[in-house]
From TrEMBL:
Record family assignment: Belongs to the EPSP synthase family.
Pfam families, per the entry: EPSP_synthase
Name of the protein in its database record: 3-phosphoshikimate 1-carboxyvinyltransferase
Location in the cell: Cytoplasm
Enolpyruvate transferase domain ranges (all copies): 15-422
UniProt keyword annotations, A-Z: Amino-acid biosynthesis, Aromatic amino acid biosynthesis, Cytoplasm, Transferase
């Protein structure tokens, strides 16, 4: 996959594609399933989960906190959190890597346990926002030390349970703050009532995903406007099957559009809360067609891409791939509603503007997005900033531009360890 200089030359498509693809399990669903399984009253068999760095970090984190797992046919059998650590006075370390989901979803689990747990990881995770969540957890009874950094490293002191109750939360920087409280809410003594304050919460589909999965595990979730209530209850779900990751499918969808070919993506669900399903409604706007049947989704590009204006507020994780695709449009495009991407694995807006422009496009940051003016592209190094979605964006560019050298391609292992091999295989 890589050469001695740790780069990957993105392969060029020789013509319109005709390919069949199967993508791995959803990262968002996998991680939520592991957290809910840890909080359940009996073991849960999680089938067809994503196997990636982020997913392994989540399994490692819940195991450190007492929810052990073991490999089983097609997935993992996850056991619930234990009732206390053998040595509760010893500090355990929860390894975060650069996984924002792990950093946000597992502190509440530590508060439900016993003893101190130190949360830390890669240097990049220390720059990712988490302050509003820590503040809310303190309001629900958790004892947390962060030396006012409002970011990792921080220590959660578990005292055998959490009171819960009502709390205000600013989740405008990440919908994961809200999801973290809702997922753990059934295990709080009083459940949890979260009232959203501050700016609009991004990625409404991820909130819907959290609510739907809670209900699958037996929780009672009510929503009235900007207020959510989860009642205390015993969770249970003997088996949970993870859907394919539709956001990871985005570059393969884009490949059909960019090459004017056809790509068939197996297992695309008929109904889903995944944000990536929005791609189906986007394709006609891009001059392509999408046909969904029991086998999956068939995408066929027309060979031309019009300039468009897109509000990606609820599907921000698709921005890198869509921005790369729009560099081949026939006119200028505007992406808006994604200011929150500045707090992801990297500042994705600055990274995209810098890297796409370095290859010849005219891509400029706006207050909440990007303005993309297509221009002739050329080869060169595409830096990825330890961001898996930027590797995927670079691969899309490489379909029509020779010599795209993708820096640190292994970072795509965060969500799809076999991405480069699958991409090359698609091109046949």
């Amino acid at each position: 996959m890589t050469d001695a200089h740790d780069t990957w030359t993105a392969p060029v498509a020789e013509g319109p594609l005709d390919a069949d693809i199967r993508v791995p399990g959803s990262k968002s669903i996998t991680n939520r399933a592991y957290v809910l399984a840890a909080l359940a009253s009996a073991p849960t068999r999680v089938r067809t989960p994503l196997d990636s760095r982020d997913a392994r970090l989540m399994l490692g984190a819940i195991s450190t906190l007492g929810a052990h797992s073991q490999g089983s046919i097609g997935g993992y059998l996850v056991h619930p959190l234990g009732h206390g650590r053998v040595h509760p006075d010893e500090t355990v370390r929860v390894e975060l890597g650069n996984a924002g989901t792990v950093a946000r979803f597992t502190p509440a689990l530590a508060a439900l346990g016993t003893g101190p747990a130190l949360f830390d990881g890669d240097e990049a995770i220390r720059r990712r926002p988490i302050g509003p969540l820590l503040k809310a957890l303190r309001g629900l009874g958790a004892r947390i030390e962060d030396d006012r950094r409002e970011a990792p490293p921080f220590t959660v002191h578990g005292e055998g349970g959490l009171r819960g109750g009502k709390v205000d939360l600013d989740s405008s920087a990440s919908s994961q703050f809200l999801s973290a409280l809702l997922l753990a809410g059934p295990s709080f003594q009083q459940g949890v009532t979260v009232r959203l304050v501050g700016g609009t919460v991004p990625s409404e589909p991820h909130i819907a995903m959290t609510v739907e999965m809670l209900r699958r595990f037996g929780a009672t979730v009510d929503r009235e406007g900007t207020e959510f209530h989860v009642a205390p209850t015993r969770l249970s779900c003997p088996e949970y099957i993870v859907e394919p990751d539709l956001s990871t499918a985005a570059p393969f969808v884009a490949a059909a559009v960019v090459t004017g070919g056809t790509v068939r993506i197996a297992g695309w669900p008929q109904q889903t809360t995944q944000p990536g399903d929005w791609l189906r409604s986007l394709l006609p706007v891009l001059g392509a067609t999408a046909e969904l049947d029991a086998a999956g989704l068939t995408v066929t590009g027309s060979g031309t891409i019009p300039g468009v204006e897109l509000d990606l507020h609820d599907v921000g994780e698709l921005t890198p791939v869509i921005a790369a695709l729009l560099c081949f449009a026939e006119g200028p495009s505007i992406i808006s509603g994604v200011a929150h991407l500045r707090g992801h694995e990297t500042d994705r807006l600055t990274a995209l503007a810098t890297e796409l422009s370095s290859l010849g496009a005219d891509v400029r940051e706006t207050e909440d997005g990007l303005r993309i003016t297509p221009a002739p592209l050329h080869g060169g190094k595409f830096r990825t900033y330890d961001d898996h979605r930027l590797v995927m964006a670079a691969a899309v560019l490489g379909l029509r531009v020779e010599g795209i050298e993708v820096e640190n391609p292994e970072t795509v292992g965060k969500t799809y360890p076999g991405f480069a091999e699958a991409w090359t295989s698609m091109l046949g």
